[in-house]
Amino acid sequence: MDLSSAVTTTAATLRRRPGDLLPFYFLGTAVPVIARVGLFVALAGVYLHVELTGRLADAREGLADLDLTPPDTQDPEAMQAWAESVEPALSPLVSPTAVLLLAAGTLVTLLLAVLAYAAISAGQLSAVAARLRGRRGLTAGIAGVRGRWISFLGIYVAELLLWAGAALIGAAAVAVGFLVNPFLGAAVAIAVLLVGFVVLLAVRVVFAFAPAAIVVDDASAFEAITGSGGFVRTNPADAAGYLVITIGVLIGTASAASALAFLGAGAIVGLASAVVVAPALDVLKTTLYGDYRDAVVPVPPPESGPIDQIRRGVRRGWRELLAFVRRSPGAHVVSIAVGVGFGALGWLAVDPLAGAVTTSIESRLVGHVPPAAAVNFFGNNWAVAIATATGGVALVVPALSSIAFNGFALGATAALESNPVALVAFVLPHGVFELPALFISGALGIRLGVVSWRTFRGRLSREAFANALENAFWVLVGLGIVLGVAGFIEGFVSPYYWRPFV
């Protein structure tokens, strides 16, 4: 199979039954949500520590007598003087126990991120390989998470060690060169840069196909690296073509992100990269490697065109969203209770700072560009909804923590608002769409968590779990419609309509 045919197969695979593949890429956006649970637990521990030991009361007492408003100046001496005046009041919050808890929380967060990334990557590539063989992707992905995560972790660690080893060897060679002679050191540095670039590029190409080798050959990490190296040697043109396409896509994505970030709409690029670009590149490299192993059964593209397919997908997403809301009232009650409860907690937590520290919706709207803002609001909110819902797969806790975090942040922001009437007026038009959508995403995360737990205990089959993941995908498509409407209103209506009256 040539590169052009592989690209055609990639497009057909992505278009034919996307709900049997993309849920695992939606799940990939939840890695930060899953990982930060460790840090949240550490922060809760710190709070209990400073509250029970009286340190928080001491800090509140010290802050009550201070003006916490930073000086309205760029003078570094004034800023330093203000910081020095505040530091004694905050010093009771710093203790060896608090520092130890935060360090442990950070370590656990990093560990969770690495493990979640390896496990979800195993599921993604396993789902891709199954789709390319004409089998159901989600059930294969679920099996891949449990059976292949160690192999994926192994290739990631191996590549990291190779990069680190190459960097250390290069740095040592340059250091020795400079010790002998400055001119020799400069020459060695140039040679290290050139040779290192070639070596690391070769390493990246080989390791790019190692995940595909794991799922196609059902191989261990070492066997996958060996098989990937054999593919690159045997098919250098295909490997080079994939590398060129990947670099081109990354450059295009980075350029789009920079341009949209300048306009304030960069969130949509990150979401598109996670749920469109990443699966496309994974399918392409697995197609190339699978064809090398005679393990690909190319699927024909759908009979309907892309526009008709999108139209039917939107309708299905809306139906699944309404059906989910009707059949899961209990999960929605829990989601709303957590969001509202932590919103109240955020309000109370910042109450000692009210008046001294303020936020302003009017200042945040300075430089507002409606089209870019609408796209950014939609991209950011849909990404949060997707990560919250799919994060629930990790036994509910990440979904609840995400709802709690967002509720706490909204409550704290509202409590510190300098013009509460303006804030309510701004939030109301789009909030009637946005807030329910976020609560629904939390309820969806709770449902997925329950299903994953029952599957883990053997009470549900992988097929049932796969059905739940596919249904969640379509519910999230429906939420995308709601959040698209909310983003449009927030970009074009909410910032303006109230100004003549408030």
TrEMBL record:
<protein>
    <submittedName>
        <fullName>Stage II sporulation protein M</fullName>
    </submittedName>
</protein>
<dbReference type="InterPro" id="IPR057169">
    <property type="entry name" value="DUF7847"/>
</dbReference>
<feature type="transmembrane region" description="Helical">
    <location>
        <begin position="329"/>
        <end position="350"/>
    </location>
</feature>
<feature type="transmembrane region" description="Helical">
    <location>
        <begin position="473"/>
        <end position="498"/>
    </location>
</feature>
<dbReference type="Pfam" id="PF25231">
    <property type="entry name" value="DUF7847"/>
</dbReference>
<feature type="domain" description="DUF7847">
    <location>
        <begin position="1"/>
        <end position="274"/>
    </location>
</feature>
<keyword id="KW-1133">Transmembrane helix</keyword>
<feature type="transmembrane region" description="Helical">
    <location>
        <begin position="262"/>
        <end position="284"/>
    </location>
</feature>
<feature type="transmembrane region" description="Helical">
    <location>
        <begin position="435"/>
        <end position="453"/>
    </location>
</feature>
<feature type="transmembrane region" description="Helical">
    <location>
        <begin position="98"/>
        <end position="128"/>
    </location>
</feature>
<feature type="transmembrane region" description="Helical">
    <location>
        <begin position="149"/>
        <end position="180"/>
    </location>
</feature>
<dbReference type="Pfam" id="PF01944">
    <property type="entry name" value="SpoIIM"/>
</dbReference>
<feature type="transmembrane region" description="Helical">
    <location>
        <begin position="186"/>
        <end position="216"/>
    </location>
</feature>
<keyword id="KW-0472">Membrane</keyword>
<keyword id="KW-0812">Transmembrane</keyword>
<feature type="transmembrane region" description="Helical">
    <location>
        <begin position="24"/>
        <end position="48"/>
    </location>
</feature>
<dbReference type="InterPro" id="IPR002798">
    <property type="entry name" value="SpoIIM-like"/>
</dbReference>
<feature type="transmembrane region" description="Helical">
    <location>
        <begin position="237"/>
        <end position="256"/>
    </location>
</feature>
